Amino acid sequence: MDRLHAFKTIAAQARCGELAFPASVEASIRLQRALADPDCHVDLATRLIQADPLLAARTVAIANSVAYNRSGTPISGVRPAVQRLGVRTLQTLVAAVIVRQLGSTLEDPVLRAKTAQLWEHTAHVASLAQVIARRVTNVDPDTALFAGVVHEVGAFYMLSRAADFPGVMEGEPEDWIEHGEAIISAGVFRELMVPEPVVTAVAAMWHGLRALPPETLGDTLLLADDLAPIPSPMHVRPGATTAQAARTIDFAVGDGTLQAILDESRDEVESLYSVLML
């Protein structure tokens, strides 16, 4: 089966909701659905998080990060961490687990390297998006963090299926972008119950032009993507800023500048990035 046929086959499956996830991902998706239930309260969320030791550790770690621990008061238990973060941030952490699990069963070293680079890129985008949302665009920072985590989830899914279609990820990514990305991403978004505003923002990220100064969630993602020091191995946006040019991006924000905000927020970005990389 050639690459184009493989992309179209997986895209057709995604369009019909026939997605194939590893068993570990299925369990995390069930957790995500439970957290998305409006009736999910702190006690239930705490029990769900405690059932997964790795997720419990990440929950406490992000609650103690500079971005979420403004008072400097450390937390050592899952319940107070859940109370500090709220269910929406927990959904972001679960989404991060799901995304990383998609590549956890890969044996091919080339695919594993692509997955590792894609996650590094994702963690940078998500961390930068949270700070840009809070300090620059004034969109909801938790939504921006979540959007950054899931913005390339379709690519992670494609990599997870690559072992079933030998050679599919060889060569340039243009065929993937043209014939698979949008449909496969939409299918995974539906499975993960990604809110429509996030889906719309990711679509704007891939196809829109970033406004300066940025205003929307899509603009937030575009700027974070441009500023991320690790590029995506799966997608190059038309008109994307080069890594060298990204270092020169600056504009006025209130009485300050973007560069001043990034300098002031470096510890927050690095703290979030470190938690996501756990």
What does this structure look like?
The chain is mostly helical and 278 residues long. The chain has one domain (3-16, 94-276). Helices cover 65% and strands 1% of the residues. It is built from 15 helices and 2 strands. It has a two-stranded antiparallel ribbon with strand order 1-2. Helix 1 runs parallel beside helix 10. The longest helix has 29 residues, at 109-137. The chain is globular, with a radius of gyration of 18 Å. The termini are far apart. 44% of the residues are buried. The mean pLDDT is 88.
Topology:
Layout: H1 3-15, H2 23-36, H3 42-50, H4 53-63, H5 78-85, H6 87-101, H7 109-137, H8 141-150, H9 153-161, H10 174-191, H11 196-207, H12 217-227, H13 243-246, E1 252-253, E2 256-257, H14 258-264, H15 266-276
Antiparallel strand pairs: 1-2
Helix pairs in contact: 1-10, 2-6, 3-5, 4-5, 6-8, 7-8, 7-12, 7-15, 8-11, 8-12, 9-10, 11-12
Mean pLDDT: 88
Spatial sequence of strands, sheet with the most strands: 1-2
- Oligomerization status of the protein chains: single chain
Query: What does the largest sheet look like?
Result: 2 strands, antiparallel
Rg is 18 Å
Question: Percent range for helical residues?
Answer: 55-70%
Estimate the global geometry from the Cα principal axes.
globular
How many strand elements?
2
Q: What distance lies between the first and last C-alpha atoms, to the nearest angstrom? A: 37 Å
Domain HDOD: 21-208
Protein name: HD-like signal output (HDOD) protein
Pfam family, one: HDOD
